[in-house]
Amino acid sequence: MDGTSPDFTPHGKHLIAGDWVAGETRFTSEPAHGPAHDYSVGTPDLVDRACRAAEDAFWTYGYTTREQRAVFLGKIADEIEARGAAITAIGTSETGLPEARLEGERGRTTGQLRLFASHIRKGDYLDIRHDQALPDRQPLARPELFMMQRPIGPVAVFGASNFPLAFSTAGGDTAAALAAGCPVVVKGHSAHPGTGEIVAEAIHAAIVACDMPAGVFSLIQGGKRDVGQALVQHPLIKAVGFTGSLGGGRALFDLCAQRPEPIPFFGELGSVNPMFILEQASSARGEEIGTGWAGSLTMGAGQFCTNPGIAVVAKGAAGDAFVKSAAAALQDVAPQKMLTDGIAAAYRDGKARFDARNAVRPVLTTDPEGRMATPNLYETDAENYLRDQSLGEEVFGPLGLVVRVSDRAEMEHLARGFEGQLTATIQMDGGDAEDARRLLPILERKAGRLLVNGFPTGVEVADTMVHGGPYPASTNFGATSVGTLSIRRFLRPVCYQNVPADVLPGDLA
Ligand code: NAP
Fold it and tell me: Does the keyword Signal apply (predicted)?
């Protein structure tokens, strides 16, 4: 626990361009523990007000210097830290996540904000290009050309339930958009409205301290689906950053595509993150890999988009040892509280889907109750897996499926059959290099991040990180939602032809 005060009682209002606004109707939060609170339900009218203010703010904020925005991002991080204990208290109450996890996530959130501050100070992200004028070129002279990335305008952000800080109100999407020079309108996640409110309070304090336009940030609480729909359809919104489920993401993505002016929808959706265990690794370390896999599969009650839900291993004794040790480790995992009643119900439904399949064999089955998750493990073979694509759909929670293959060729065939993924993992030893070289080009076409001899849970926030991948892992394979490259989502290249130096934007002059 840090030295700040843990006291915070949410007032339940929206933050619209600097004003705390109460709605006419309220919804009640469903915390994992502690008191429930009432929150204002968002409305399309409030969405309109926030988007108009964001557009007004863009004419100032979009033209601030990189240094001004870097100072602002740093100030948001400071204000979050100043409320550290209160954020942890309300966050743990709403989500059931342990204190240490919330504190770690807060560090990641402030770290992201500061990383973006230093990233924009360096300026490389502007990707400035210059073609000199060639007045004597024949048959045609060439004018002087500059190119630079510019912010796109107001951005809508939808946070995820499972990262109430790092992928939510002041999370990676918000940090990237603000760094780029784009005002942000956040649709608060109804699983953690109080955490959203206190983080919005921190952003508001930074706006005032840095004398930024009030419309640069708004938070509209949810409570009804029409808020999110109105937000992605608002004509002043120029892009959407979304982290959440495939169903929700696809619905909002389709709305963006159907707009009179379609806009990019950067949705980071679910994934089963397959892990391929090669022959030598399986013989030498099958048991150890089984234990490690079980740990990754159950971390945070399995509520990670990078949860490695599927393991692929050969039939035979070495593969059996992997399955046995994974099952033994899973058996020892105590029940864990899930983020919401809805997510817990979806987990039970996902398990029931597996139980109903003749093509899968239960290895370890448990009966999760209420909001508690307990691990489940199933096994099938490649033929059955490829025949029933629903086995490749994500079950959000600690459920694992082992797919047994006959040989290397079948493993490669299976790998080709996977849909787009956030990550793919290879477990290999020295003698597996030839097999790994054959598998890697297949997996490159499937996933945004490829790992060897590790587990995909735990995403480094770095310049090289790619948290994205081909659909359905994300709706835009050219983008990442983690790391500094994520700023590119909210920028647009503009070419300046023959523009005098004293008219060019500051970064080019
Ligand atoms: P979710 O149910 O899709 O909700 C995400 C946000 O979208 C919420 O604000 C929700 O509003 C809104 N929403 C969902 N469907 C909507 C619709 N049809 N119309 C309007 N708004 C809609 O996802 P979640 O429960 O937060 O997260 C769990 C899922 O997210 C898992 O599948 C997980 O794998 C995935 N996830 C992916 C990543 C990644 O980086 N790829 C990271 C974390 C989680 P309400 O608040 O009203 O529900």
Answer: no
